[in-house]
Amino acid sequence: MTECISPDYNTIFSENNSIYETWRKCNSGHPDLPALEYFGNQWTLKHCEEIIDVYARAFLKLLPDKSKSVTFCTPTLPSTFFAFYALNKIGVRANFVSHTILPSNPKEYIEETDTEILVLFDGFFKTVAASLKKVSLKKIIIVSLSDGIETIPEYVSDKLRPYLQMKNSAGKIKLVMPFKKVLSVSKFTSIGKKETETVKPVYNADETAVVLYTGGSTGVPKGVEMTNEGFISMAKVYTSMSKFDIQVGDRQLILIPPNHPTSFVHTIIIPWFFGAIQVLQPLYNKDSFAFDLFTTKANIVMAAPNHYSALPVCDMSESTLKELKWAYCGGEAVSYEFALSVNKALVRLGARNPYLVIGYGMSEIGPMAIVTQNNPELINKVGKPITDVVARIVDDKGSVLGDNMRGNLEVKSPCRMKGYFKQPELTSIFFTEDGYAKTGDIAVRDENGYYDVIGRATDSIIAVDGSKVYLFDIERIIYKDPAVLEAEVIGLSVNGKDIPVVHIVLNSEHIGKENEVILRVHALCKEHLSVNEMPQGYKIREAFGTNPISAKRDYRALLEERDGYFMVDGDEVRAIGF
């Protein structure tokens, strides 16, 4: 194994290079070190570069017009890494879209992005099959969980093993379009291996390198355009963070798919720039979160709050997570009680830094604009803006508010997007005249300059008297009850009006005491909330439904549930439906 030579990141990040060239330069001093790990199978940096070249030659053969693009609808697989870096090397734009939103408007995500090749995970085929009939595609490359697998480790469960051993299902897609348009990964790579031309890196300054479509959980999905410069500026900002610590050889567990814009940066870009071994886990169950951290010996994990909810209730022994040095959390607001319970679990499990490092950012301005930076005293507050990032709190009219005044968060960052793809009006609305991004989040800054991002401005309803009720205010009260493991307050539409209702998952020791918990939570709400904020129904559930790939909570499904609620009538709990 070659000796690891530490690169001069500041010099590299100041140069004008593509994402591919930046990655190659950052890691040129240790080509024989592992770069990717997938169910125990490893690829060195040198091996990755060789495969990327094969992919690049195949794309050049299939896509002679480089003004066209390639769209990805995949989880985090080795083939996703190789294909994206190959496209970036040859200067072709890549688009990333979730399988949950692609069927809603395939013309927008395929034809309007000038897509000629779709890289599609076979597990998403049933979801998107009908939509593919509506668009024109030159080729479809089918990727599978089994691509690149040579050995399957013993710790993989019997439930998962058949998926890893299954044959590529490309043949099924012939029901939708001519079979000649469909390629398996092996067929695709064979095209690249037949080509012998040396692939020279292409750098397009200020050109869009990636379009990342937001998930649509808080609004209509939008395509976030990012340039090579935009991504590299994020990495440059990270080097200035006093406690940001990814070392060459660190093992970062990846649990979130790259089609989510923020996770794309933490999955595909930043850790690989800094020489981390990307430990991929495309099939994820939050109940196995602690076990996944243990078996992969992860040093770093980037996960959503929903992932961490499994830690306080896991029964693993002390020192189980002794390898874990950074537990990053983002994507949603985190209550004090929830963060405290996770921190206690990290202490019990032996993590090196036993507290959540809570970050805040957006696809449009960089995924980590404000962060706790290794301050265990903050518990659930986001922290201070990182170097070259500034923030402010304003009221609805845009006037700047003082300390301890809650309002709208605006952020100015060097990592800003180029714009929303083919939506210039939305781009102009998103930014203020002086360059701040209107994040759409509600926050407060304390007298020491620490920001607490409370929740989305849209996470609210209008009460009968016309006042605005923020649902996250209700959630924070509910989390004060120790029986509550997870809670979600939604605005349920009833007779044309939105009313607050509560969904609760109980800690295991309180199962069977549902009525007691509802009465106690209701009393807490009466003590701390106004009449307009009082929940009109409570629902105890075993778990929240989640996406099988990302494990993020399925909020929209809750809006469809009308039965199974309870209300408090005096000292009694009785069933109610809406």
Characteristic terms for this protein:
eight-stranded mixed β-sheet, 578 residues, single chain, 25% strand, alpha/beta
Explain briefly what this protein structure is:
The protein is α/β, with parallel strands linked by helices.
Question: What features would you describe in this structure?
Answer:
The protein is an alpha/beta fold and 578 residues long. The chain is 27% helix and 25% strand. The strands form six sheets. The chain has a nine-stranded mixed β-sheet with strand order 2-1-11-10-12-13-14-15-16, with helices on both faces. An eight-stranded mixed β-sheet has the order 7-6-5-3-4-8-9-19. Strands 17-18-20-21 form a four-stranded antiparallel β-sheet, with no helix packed on it. Helix 4 links the parallel strand 3 and strand 4. Helix 3 packs across helix 4 and helix 3 crosses helix 8. It starts with 8 loop residues before the first helix and ends with a strand.
Structural class: alpha/beta
Low-confidence sequence ranges: none
- In round numbers, the mean pLDDT is 88
Counted by DSSP, the helix tally is 17
The order of strands across the largest sheet is 2-1-11-10-12-13-14-15-16
In which range does the helix fraction lie? 25-40%
Q: Which range does the strand content fall in?
A: 15-25%
Total beta-strand segments: 28
Terminal Cα separation, in Å? 65 Å
Determine the oligomeric state from the structure: single chain
